[in-house]
Amino acid sequence: MAADETSTPTTAEREGILERAWLDGTEVALDLAVAEVADWVAESGSIVVLTGAGISTDSGIPDFRGRHGVWTRDPEAEKASTISHYLSSPEVRKVAWRRRLTSPARSARPNAGHLALVELERQGRLDTLVTQNTDGLHLLAGTSPERLVEVHGSARGVMCVDCDDRADMRVALDRVEAGEEDPACRSCGGILKSTTVLFGESLDPADIDAAGEAAERCDLVLAVGTTLNVFPAAHVPRVAQRAGARLAIVNGGPTDADDGADAVLRGSISDILPRLVAGPA
């Protein structure tokens, strides 16, 4: 390259992510691993994808415990995600509503990683997409609701904890913008919260069952943007491997399942995932 030429940096370069890859525990060049896993994708008839916060960082939504994570920068923010604190403290709720107003998730759009999974579904290879994310970007990208399991719920809805009345989150946020610091349910006066599952709440057993059943029948799991240390979602790859499926991990950093994975691709998700779905070169 001539001295005055420049190239556009990859997402991995911009974020300082060290690109590395392993196949069956042996470190290899990232391009080689991408080509191998792309072959697995092309050969698979039933793929389960598990996504975490890492797939949405390129959409401008920070993760939680990463270098620039929400809870890393502001440990107090975790209180608003804990049901006991949320229900017992009007001040915690007021802070939570202010954060929802300014959350980057409100204007975020799907990135190349989300769109790659829509293409995987279009190809007829996606069995189920299990996501730990609550940002709703998979649905915005075009993933079919019947193939999506949002195990931690969705931040795009609001519900009353007393009467279970539900509405679009925009309805409640309009009230906050109009001056209501802690809007109450207009049906019964109860406390409103997002339709996410907060710490201390139970997950929907039907969602857990659907994720587990999909894991048992698939032949390949792609774990994308998750450190695989939050359960029960982290059981999905383990269940699939016990049933004979391969596991490929795509993430910006180490995960708790790297040692047992068939492939580990470390780098930018929005750079790598579209290459896997595009098929063999």
From TrEMBL:
Leading EC class: transferase
E.C. numbers: 2.3.1.286
Catalytic residues (positions): H152 (proton acceptor)
Binding site for Zn(2+): C160, C163, C185, C188
Keywords for the protein's UniProt record, in alphabetical order: Metal-binding, NAD, Transferase, Zinc
Gene Ontology molecular function: any one: histone deacetylase activity, NAD-dependent
InterPro entries: DHS-like_NAD/FAD-binding_dom (IPR029035), NAD-dep_sirtuin_deacylases (IPR050134), Sirtuin (IPR003000), Ssirtuin_cat_dom (IPR026590)
Keyword Thylakoid found: no
Any Pfam family matching the protein: SIR2
Domain Deacetylase sirtuin-type: 27-281
Cross-referenced Gene3D superfamilies: 2.20.28.200, TPP-binding domain
Protein name: protein acetyllysine N-acetyltransferase
